Amino acid sequence: MPEQNQQQMKKTIIFISVILIANFNSFSQTNQYWKLGYHTGVSFKSGTCIVNPNDTCTMQMFDSNTGVSDNQGNLIFYSNGLLVKNRLDQTMPNGDNFNHGTVSNTYIPQGWMPPFNIATVIPFPNDTNKFYLFYENLEYSINGSDFPNKLRYLIVDKSLNSGLGDVTQKEIDVITDTLYDGQLHAIKHGNGKDYWLIARKYKSNIFYKVLINSSGVSIVDTQAIGNTYPVNNTVGIYSGYSGTSLMGDKIVYWYAGIPTTGSQPDGQLDIEEFDRCTGKFMSAKNIILPYSGTDTLDFLFGCISPNGKYLMTVRKNTQVKKSC
Predict the structure, then answer these.
(1) What is the mean pLDDT of residues 8-20?
(2) CATH number where 294 lies
(3) Which residues of 220-253 are buried (b: 16+ CB within 10 A; e: fewer)?
(4) Which has the higher per-residue pLDDT, 143 or 181?
(5) What is the model's pTM?
(6) Enclosing domain of residue 168
(7) Is residue 80 a contact partner of residue 61, using CB atoms and an 8 Å limit?
(8) Residue 309 has pLDDT above 70, yes or no
(9) Hey, which bits of 137-263 come out as E strands?
């Protein structure tokens, strides 16, 4: 394994206890096994986080991975946003050659893309055999960062291919607009059966809200709330990981390298309160995380605690806890 990849996997393992729980909000029983790539997996079947260093997955996952399990915690399929693989680690029929964009096309031959959270699985509300895989492409390279101009989805039917699953449709457009890469969140609706999907417009505090119900996939509206950050990697201003609370009532966004206290490149995070019944953001809160003096990439990672009261973030591999 190349040295860069080894370092990436080490970082993944270091942050695993802090980060993985962040996307556990919507799928409780169906999100119980995670493929991390390079023979590493994580199981939550026992109620605790157990790392499996002998997983059979060899696909490169890096910062983006998603998957779904059955109610017994057995994996059905998983993806890194460029490939869809079944539980036997085989590429599904039609599970490749998707997620096209000017920049993402350069990653397709490599089989991976770098942004966080560019893909997520949502089950059909009215069909237990079918799943949506939503994903963002990469179209533009702006100031050292890559950004999508499409949110799309494909459909997996797990009953096909002798129960191993098949991609039946793909490259179906939902949003055509420049978006922040990876700030994509699935939240279960307050009615207990439908889902919300939240995507953020680039260089903006505007959020797209997509509803997934028995009628299909539709954009409900957009809403402006919270701050706007001038993300620019060439001057050291980065957008980091974003995650949701276990109950789906909060979404948090991390940023690093923002000069707020004098000229120091501080970390910042925004917490948006979300109503799962109405699909409305109710309030926004900003927290400044002072620069440590050593690393402008402080506070790019974190999650909300299971009880929804605390933010757990990381500074130089040290956990930092803040009240929500």
Answers:
(1) 40
(2) 2.130.10
(3) eeebebbeebebeeeeebbbbbbbbbbbbbbbbb
(4) 181
(5) 0.84
(6) 3-323
(7) yes
(8) yes
(9) 140-142, 145-147, 150-157, 166-176, 179-188, 195-201, 206-213, 216-224, 238-244, 250-261
Compute the distance between CA of residue 64 and CA of residue 310 in angstroms, rounded to an integer: 24
Give the Cα separation of 15 and 318 in Å (integer).
10
177 by Cβ neighbours in 10 Å (0-12 / 13-18 / 19+) ranks as: middle
pLDDT, residue 22, reads: 40
pLDDT value for 177 = 94
Burial of residue 109, with CB atoms counted within 10 A of its CB: 0-12 exposed, 13-18 middle, 19 or more buried: exposed
User: Which pair of structure tokens corresponds to residue 301?
Assistant: 């990672």
Contacts with 15 (C-beta within 8 Å, 6 or more apart), sequence order: 301, 314
DSSP string, 208-225: EEEEEETTEEEEEEEEE-
Residue pLDDT, tens place only, 212-221 = 999 999 999 9
Instruction: Show the tokens assigned to 129.
Output: 């055999």
Number of compact structural domains in the chain: 1
